[in-house]
Amino acid sequence: MSQSINAAIATPKANSQDPDPRPLMLGSDILVASLERVGVDTIFAYPGGASMEIHQALTRSSKIRTVLPRHEQGGAFAAEGYARATGRAGVCMATSGPGATNLVTGIADAYMDSIPLIAITGQVPQAMIGKGAFQETDFFGLTLPIVKHSYLITNINDIPRIVKEAFHVAITGRPGPVVIDLPKNIQQQRARPVFDEPLAIRGFPETPKADDSALEMILDLIEKSERPVLYVGGGVISADASEELRRFVEATQIPVTTTIMGCGAFPETHPLSLRWLGMHGAAYANWAVSGEQRKETFGNETLPVIVAPGADLLLAFGVRFDDRVTGKVDKFCEHGTIVHIDIDRSELNKNRLVQHPIVSEIKHALQRLNSLVKSRPIKRQFTAWHEKIAEWKKRAPLRYQVNEEVIRSQHMRDHLSGAESEVILPQMAIEMLYELTQGDAIITTGVGQHQMWAGQYYKYRFPRQLLTSAGLGAMGYGYPAALGAKVACPDKQVVDIDGDGSFLMNIQELATAHIEQIAAKALVLNNQHLGMVVQWEDTFFSGNRGHTYLGDPKNMKQIYPDYIAMAKSFNVPCERVMFRRDLRAAMQRMLDSDQPYVLDVIVPYTEHVLPFIPAGKTVAEMIY
Q1: Do 376 and 315 share a structural domain?
Q2: Active site positions, annotated
């Protein structure tokens, strides 16, 4: 170590003449004290050479619980689960180099889904930066495209200010991830910190708020419309505006559809709920927005024909018109007037050109709309529109059936030995979970078919109930996120509905669950395949398998890997269910357990998620 660094970390001698009463503190202790002052109670952190000083400081904290994940990605996802379940910023930490780079997927996921996340990374000493030191990575530069803001701390006196700023940036406006990169020599230095400096971030914008004239225009449009629809997303949940949304819906009687990120923003058990829309959303939700359509051939040309019109007014609140919702974007609500309210100006007219873009925090907009509606109630009745939607709901509900012919395929016959009537479909398992939990559990998911079925067959009644990697679509998200949610909400039942492919990606977090006594449950819908890719292979590639079978091709009768044996090695209870008659009792045992628990449910790989609008297509091409 150089003389300059030795000098920097040497403890200064006490000066009896020094009037400053503040104690000298290590940079690592200043960081932890700063985290305590912004209300951090949990950090998901994996130690290493460049961050061990901070871990030593954490051992001296009586206010912060440090949860040791078994992989840095698991820690990032757990911090996200904590943030999604609470609305507070989740905190994760890793060492420099490979530890930091293992956080990248979690940071990108938080960025895509607008989740407040603080990612703290140790960094090599300042004198080593840029010299290719052991485990050095320019994490500041590496994460620039996927963060809301980044800090590389170069002065120990900046630590309290930067921590305070980082949390403010992460949770205000459109939430997102913030990186704090802290060189090791700064952690080892000593200083007298100033914790109570007022927060002042130059150039940081004030929260935008719509004026009443723009909101009065919305009420005018409602009065003129015949078929209005509210299309709401995760922005309503981030703004804690679900109650304001419910009041507005009940005052106006406008039907509501959500994105996956918006599930629970409006109770899906409410008569005005259309559930969620998009690629695998409810047929009636897609019809309500874009109209019921079908393809017809005219001479040599096939064209969409509108059977029944959709929305003539679409109120898009806290959404971003992502491709999984819109399909062919210029055909999305092609014949309706669109009002788009979003806190982020860059989202307006980015994906879908709209007639009335409004920059505003959605909670303020809904509060003012409710006040305006109270003073001038909506006189327009939408009886015919409600009747049409009720007809669509009756004609095309979310449903499934056991296809005995398909179930008798070689793969399932090997496992079921002729007991086709006892097969468990994924949808059945999720419906049963909904019934046994009375719709009150917090649900996390991995990514794939099971994620879509979890959205379809569990009805979400409150915000922050469905925690899923929506924008990035990161496999391996489900179980670590469940750990974070369970830490945040210890009195709630937290269940990860997962696929065998996603679950395996972070299965090591079962060790974290056992050691930390985090009783998060995992319902694994095990079809031995990468199910969503298989569905696309069946639809677009004539069923040709391009490396999507996860089992053992030498022994098709064997369930591989053996989750029972793996869970046992982590001291986590696990059981496998293959027959419908055994499912209810097994699921109840899982729910009754006060430990982490894995339920391995064998399901057919032949099942497809329906409805299905192929990517880039329109409602006219929906399979339902």
Answers
A1: yes
A2: 72, 134-135, 184, 532
